[in-house]
Structures are given as C-alpha cells and as structure tokens.
Design a protein that fits this description.
This protein is α/β, with parallel strands linked by helices and about 260 residues long. About 25% of the residues lie in helices and about 30% in strands. It is built from six helices and 14 strands. The mean pLDDT is about 95.
Length: about 260
C-alpha cells in the first residue's frame, strides 16, 4: 500500500473516531502487519492524543470469535479516551460492546535488555491494578474482519473506564471471580484464568510483541487484559457494573 494511501486511511480513521461516526474506508491495500502498525501509529497521531497505554483485545477464544480475530491484538489507549469512572460515557456509532477487564499501571519501563518476560518479573513492575470497562468499536463499515484490519483501526479500542486503584495478590489472580451486571441484573461471571490462564499473561504477550519490534511498555503506561468474559452488548440508557472480588468495582452509564 502506498505511503500516501496509508496516511489518508489513518487520517480518515482519526476523523471518524473524533466525530463518533463510521464510513466506508479503503482497507483493501493493507496486506501486512507492518502496514497495519503504520496506520495505527499514524491514526493516533492524527487523532491528536498522547498515548496512555495499550488495550488488549481477543485474549479469550470467545472474544476472538466475536471480533473475527485469530489471535490477541492490542491498540493504543488514547489519553483523551481514558476515564476515571466518569459516570456517563457516550456510545459512538460502530460500537461493538464492552470488555470486563483489569488495567495494570507499569512502574518501570519493561522489558529492558536482558529482562525475563514472565509473571514474576511483570508483577514486580506493576504499581497499581484497577477494575476496568473497555469499549470496543469500528470506525468503518464494509471491511472484512481480520487481525490486520482490526489492528489498523486503533486495535478496535474506543474508551477505557477505570475504577479505583489497589494492590492485589498476583498468585491468586487467576481464581478471582468477575461479576458483570447490566441495570443491576447479573449477565455474566468469569474467572481470571480465562485470560490466557492468568491475567498477567496478557501483559507478557504484549511485552514480547513490543520487544520483537525493539519497543517496550513505558513507565507510567496502562495495560488492559482484554475481557474476562464474552464481549457484552451495551445500549444507551444502560448501566454496566463490573465487580472483581477482592479487587473492586467499576460502573458506567451509557448515553
């Protein structure tokens, strides 16, 4: 795909994200992961937002099936779409649904050269854990659902809504139960083991992918795990509350 076409696609994606709309866009020329990564980076720049962190998606088979993915992906968390439990969030056009997940704040840049990428080393660099609702959506219609197109389209990330930060027992995190309620009614429960066997494995997967590109998770950045349960459809007027036992709760009403 020609560089000018990549730039045009990135600008169109950013414009649609900013306006909360969808339109038909020319994804056909994206033929590689490199193309997708370039569009994602250029789109974030055109969106005029700093990088707050990284949002994982498709970290369970059920979520991959819903999103049309073959493997987990990640996209940028834009600072302008990162919220500290705001109470109300607008649902844009193209919304897919909500992820019930955790967000980890990284204290030291990771991985550094020579670092082992495993649960123990990751746990040592995390300084906070927050119950989180992640919104996913698309900025275009008519494009086939594939990993590289989803990556180009901001990794499908729309917004990240976080509750209070606490420290947790990493060893037992895979057995923590999550309960999601819509308008007070339980709609789904799940355990942390749904995320690649343990939620910290989502951070490990991200760290390995960034390291393969000569990059790292920077100090202060946030990493989300992807949804513990299948992605939930949410509608205007509904309130989604997600509670993680021993960790905390986050709620949001959608407009």
């Amino acid at each position: 795909m020609h560089a000018n076409s990549l730039d045009d696609l990135a600008i169109a994606l950013a414009r649609n994200r900013a306006s909360g709309t969808v339109s038909g866009l020319a994804f056909a020329g994206i033929v590689s992961r490199l193309d997708a990564d370039e569009v994602q980076l250029a789109a974030l720049d055109a969106y005029n937002s700093d990088l707050k962190g990284h949002a994982m998606a498709g970290t369970t088979p059920a979520c991959q099936s819903i999103l049309g993915l073959h493997a987990p992906i990640f996209g940028p968390i834009a600072s302008r779409d990162f919220f500290n439990e705001p109470g109300h969030v607008h649902l844009p056009q193209g919304i897919i649904g909500a992820q019930c997940e955790l967000a980890f704040t990284i204290g030291n840049s990771f991985p550094l050269k020579g670092d082992e990428i495993d649960r123990e080393s990751i746990a040592e660099t995390i300084v906070a854990c927050r119950p989180t609702i992640g919104l996913l959506g698309r900025r275009a219609f008519g494009a086939p659902h594939s990993d590289i197109i989803a990556i180009a389209d901001f990794g499908l990330q729309v917004a990240t809504i976080c509750g209070p930060a606490i420290r947790v027992d990493w060893d037992g995190l895979d057995q923590v139960q999550m309960t999601a309620r819509i308008n007070g009614e339980i709609v789904v429960t799940a355990k942390g083991s749904a995320i690649l066997g343990h939620p910290l494995e989502a951070v490990a997967l991200l760290a390995r992918e960034l390291a393969s590109q000569g990059k790292q998770i920077n100090a202060g950045e946030v990493v989300t795990t992807g949804s513990w349960s299948p992605i939930l459809q949410v509608l205007p007027g509904q309130t989604l509350s997600v509670e993680f036992e021993t960790i905390g709760k986050v709620s949001c009403t959608f407009d």
